[in-house]
Every structure is written in structure tokens, then in C-alpha cells.
Design a protein that fits this description.
Elements: H1 16-67, E1 71-75, E2 96-100, E3 114-115, E4 125-126, E5 128-132, E6 139-143, E7 150-153, E8 164-172, E9 176-185, E10 191-195
């Protein structure tokens, strides 16, 4: 009688039970990670907008000093052609316009489109310096005090009027206020950004 050797062939792979366990664990981990990722992305949105506002204000200040003239940043209207005149729509998230106040009246003038910088009677440059497009619709950027509709700098680098702040809020329909930053402008013209705790 001969001995018969049984050959056991090993197969590699996963069983259905093992695969279901891996899928279940992965689902649990994703459920925990996605909300954290979403809130991180939302906080980054607010940070970016606060940085954009700070950069715009630094530009306004430097242009006022360089041009020796008042330079103003105002909330823009829907098409970006003028400063917003409807108080219900004063939201810097709609965009902003930066302009030189050539005739020193505090207004962006539709008719005065050029400025005489050196006083020789010829207009050297346009009054309009920059236009920034509107931002994400979930953002609100509101000013307080004198900064509701515009922020201006004088040629000495100080703000026109008194200091104040712009508040950047990201609103979520399900969660309410998610993240808030303030861009604070001192009377001296100094700009800083702070996080508002919730």
C-alpha cells in the first residue's frame, strides 16, 4: 500500500468577513474625519479673506502715503462700477473698490476719473486704483463704526476718522457661525488680525 500524500494548496486573499470588517472600520474613520476636515477648510477660507483684507488695507495705506492724497476702500456695488449706496448691502464680501479721493470730497466720483497729482493742471492718473471681485457667498465681511461703508487713509498714513474693525464671518446653514476673524485698524493706521473665540 502506498501512502497517499494530500497536497494542501494554500490560497491567499481575504474572506468576505474580513473584507466587511475593513469596510466597517473605514466607514467609522471617515465619519469621524470628514467633519474635522470640513471645519479646517472653512477656517482656512476665513483666514484667506482676512489676509486679503489686510493686504488691501496695507495697499490703501501705502498708496495714500506715496501719492500724498487720501485713498479710500469702499464696499462695491453689484457690478463693481461704484461704491455701494444701499446701507442694507454694506458687505465687503460683495467686493471692494480702492480709489484716490482727487477732489477730497470723500466720494468715488463717476465724473472725476483722473487726478492732477503734481498740481500742474494736467491729469496724470486715474482715480480708480483697484477693484476686488466678490467673495464666497457664505462669507460676511462687515465693518463697525466708521468702517461700515468705507475705510480711508490720509497722506500721513493715519486712518480718516477713528479706528475700527472689519469682521469676517463664515456662516454655515447647519452650524451657525463657524469661524470669525477681525481685521483691526488702529487710529495710527496699524493693521492687525485677531481670531474671535466662539
Amino acid at each position: 500500500m502506498g501512502s497517499s500524500k494530500s497536497i494542501v494548496k494554500r490560497t491567499t486573499g481575504f474572506t468576505l468577513v474580513e473584507l466587511m470588517i475593513v469596510v466597517a472600520i473605514s466607514s467609522i474613520l471617515l465619519t469621524l474625519a470628514v467633519p474635522s476636515l470640513r471645519s479646517m477648510v472653512q477656517r482656512n477660507q476665513v483666514d484667506i479673506v482676512a489676509q486679503e483684507l489686510s493686504a488691501a488695507l496695507f495697499y490703501v495705506r501705502s498708496e495714500a502715503v506715496k501719492l500724498k492724497m487720501d485713498v479710500i476702500m469702499c464696499v462695491s456695488n453689484a457690478d463693481g462700477s461704484d461704491c455701494e449706496s444701499d446701507a442694507q448691502k454694506y458687505n465687503y464680501a460683495n467686493g471692494w473698490i480702492i480709489y484716490m479721493d482727487c477732489d477730497d470730497d470723500g466720494n468715488y466720483d463717476q465724473l472725476v476719473r483722473t487726478c492732477d497729482l503734481n498740481g500742474d493742471g494736467t491729469n496724470e492718473t486715474t482715480e480708480l486704483l483697484r477693484v476686488h471681485e466678490n467673495l464666497d457667498t457664505n462669507l460676511t465681511v462687515t465693518g463697525n463704526g466708521n468702517y461700515v461703508a468705507e475705510i480711508g487713509y490720509m497722506m500721513n498714513g493715519r486712518v480718516k476718522g477713528v479706528g475700527g474693525s472689519l469682521t469676517v464671518d463664515l456662516l454655515s446653514i447647519n452650524q451657525g457661525n463657524v469661524s470669525t476673524k477681525k481685521v483691526v485698524v488702529a487710529n495710527s493706521g496699524r493693521i492687525r488680525t485677531t481670531t474671535v473665540p466662539h
